[in-house]
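step 3/5: co-fold with adenosine-5'-triphosphate
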Amino acid sequence: MAESTAFLRFEGIVAGYGGGDVIKGVDFSVPQGGVTCIVGPNGSGKSTLLKVVSGLLRPRLGQLWFKGTPLVGLTPREILQLGVVQVPQNHSLFREMTVEQNVELGAFLLKDRKVIAERLKNVREIFPIVAERAKDKAGSLSGGQQRIVEFARCLMLEPELVVLDEPSMGLDPKTLRLVFDTIKSMNSAGRTVLLVEQNARQALRMSHFAVVLENGLLRLSGSGSEVLNNPEIGALYLGGSIETTSKAVSPAPSEL
Ligand SMILES: Nc1ncnc2c1ncn2[C@@H]1O[C@H](COP(=O)(O)OP(=O)(O)OP(=O)(O)O)[C@@H](O)[C@H]1O
Ligand SMILES: [Mg+2]
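step 4/5: write tokens
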């Protein structure tokens, strides 16, 4: 079966909250070992689709396969245990707790103190801020620093699939680069990344595979550069406008 060979496969996913469907039938596969990016306008259903992955929202129809295991019906905890960890769109650290306490919370599924200590040591090496600001309240960190601590917390479970919902939201260009570099290095370390991003150009440049979601349906999918270089998509979703469509047809590489 195709679904048992894909790393993560969305199959006929329909999902919503009350009356109507927000996700209206979505099929695609996330390849193992790469960065996959979901782009699309505000309200197109990107976060909703990620909530289905983490088990926070049960789809009305369809199935989601992770390495051949059906995820629909599993609790968020069971999905975490399978190695799928999500960093949500809004900042999610406990502001009154210290940086270190927050990071340790990422290991709440683990029992063995030795394993937790070992992972904390690894995470401190990857993200020096976890050691430097260990005893500071998480709420005293800047938005970008909090994002890095959220990444550190998610790595405590050594996930196979890291799901990130708009990690660069609200960050200045320099911090944004740091966050993107961090995503690249998590991926180089062997973790598959599924990413939703508003900074679509930068995200697509580092993505192996990308899908464009529009009004709950897949408008387009392909390699990051295929989506990036699609003139219509460029004009509509990548910061262009209809008036600049003619210019966007053959953009200079430096413009991208
Ligand atoms: N908890 C909820 N209850 C009811 N409706 C919701 C809920 N969360 C989202 N929606 C609706 O679902 C639609 C899609 O929202 P979603 O957050 O998935 O979009 P998005 O693509 O992530 O947008 P953004 O780029 O702004 O983050 C919107 O119309 C939104 O109002
Ligand atoms: Mg969203």
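step 5/5: annotate
Residues 46-47, 89, 165-166 surround magnesium ion (ligand 2) (CB under 6 Å).
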